[in-house]
Here is the input.
Amino acid sequence: MFRFSVICTVYNHEDYISECLSSIINQDFKDFELIIVNDGSTDNSLKNINITLNELSGRIGQKNIKVSLINIENSGQSAAFQKAIDIAEGQYIAMIDSDDSWMTDKLRIIDNAIDADEPGMILHPVRLIDSKGIDKGINRPLGAKISRGNIAERVLNSGRVVSPATSGIIIRSDICNSLMPSPLTGFSGALDAYLVVGAALKGEIIALDKALARYRIHEQGQYLIRLSSTEGIRKQVEIQDIIINSLGISEEAYRRNSFYARNILVLNRKINEPYLKSFVNLLIALYRDESFGHFDKVRLMAFWTLYSISPQNVSDKMWSFFIRKQVGI
Here is the structure.
């Protein structure tokens, strides 16, 4: 058995996939598995995958990296990930988005952390880069502290897990398998959110302080696009509902989640529904959220108060500013 199975699902990232794969193959760690699932890309992603694997074939052999390339019709992230999980042989599943890349020492550092314990999940910050790969000098998550320890009871009480983007998540394979198939089949993304909450219910989390991946932010990012429209926010709320229902978290508990409460407030404003109750719920959730420091709580409460009392055109601009700031643009 390998220590790691690295899973990279790819859809139309011809400009970034070579850099992504190179960063994995050039790790200062050997004897691991790399599974690439091309999810029906319509650009040159598959061509660039094959070019990169051919160019680095010598290094792949020297490091004893088992590479599997799977081509499927476009089915969405969850279905593509399932294809990889079905053949994965590693003790831990390391996820990476196909437009991101890793620092060279990532797997070695994670391996050392696992040797000290056998956690259910390892999380670490990611370093933000722009579409051209220029370092933004910012680590993500922004503001909130990454969750750590045995937090199952807290998750059942609030559904709140603070995690980085996909490329900063490593989950023990037995836990990952127990959570599949994903209930989010049919959605283009959000698999990481489901897996992180599920894994937090099943095992200890180790959180590292060092950023070990580069997270690419650009205008065409799925998360930004989704939250930029009313229908996208509605879909985000639907995704959140599916996650809590599939994991046995009560809706009442999840309403204590400041992330969920925020989206409910924004959706209610967007569709002109009464939003006083959702505003109050958000303030309470922020006050109770242990992942934020006192200053951040006050700052966020002030922002959402101003958002809630502003005219619709102003609140729309504030929301656009907020999500762009959140992703680092």
